[in-house]
Specification:
single chain; mainly beta; Cathepsin D, subunit A, domain 1; globular; 3% helix
């Protein structure tokens, strides 16, 4: 018996409850892994646990409202970046909770500089597989805002 999947558009507000923020994300089934815009990324160890600290900039086209974050570092991933001429980048990987509408789940997310990209987050096919059907002709099927949105101070 087929399970009904929620329908999402090509762009959606995605909550990151571990960081108490929401970001506008591009849903890209052509990308395997999800990616979050992060600056000042620094890997370190505390009590024998690998961690990464970084700044998240939830609002597009501005550095206002940046949020300092620490998360467990689960490793590094080699990512081919078509936007950088197909060059391969090695990016830190975290596992964090994602919220899309009433759906909450855990996903791997790489950290990268997305300054020149139109969206602070890319939601890749691994994150949406089995959970959602993507309608590329629509946007914000889960709503035009998110309860975790923070106003820039």
């Amino acid at each position: 018996m087929a399970r009904n999947k929620a329908v999402i558009g090509w762009r959606e507000w995605v909550g990151l409850p571990d960081f108490d923020i929401a970001v506008k994300a591009k849903v890209d089934t052509g990308a395997r892994t999800s990616s979050l815009h992060a600056r000042r990324v620094e890997a370190f160890e505390r009590d024998g646990i690998a961690l990464v600290r970084f700044w998240v900039y939830p609002k597009q086209r501005t550095a206002r409202g940046k949020v300092p974050v620490e998360a467990p570092l689960v490793g590094y991933r080699r990512i081919r970046n078509p936007g950088a001429g197909g060059r391969t980048e090695i990016r830190p990987v975290i596992v964090t909770m994602l919220e899309l509408g009433e759906h909450v789940w855990q996903a791997e997310v790489t950290l990268s500089r997305r300054d020149t990209m139109g969206f602070r987050m890319l939601l890749g096919r691994q994150a949406v597989r089995g959970k959602f059907t993507v309608d590329p002709g629509t946007s914000f099927k889960m709503g035009r805002d998110h309860p975790r949105l923070r106003e820039a101070s």
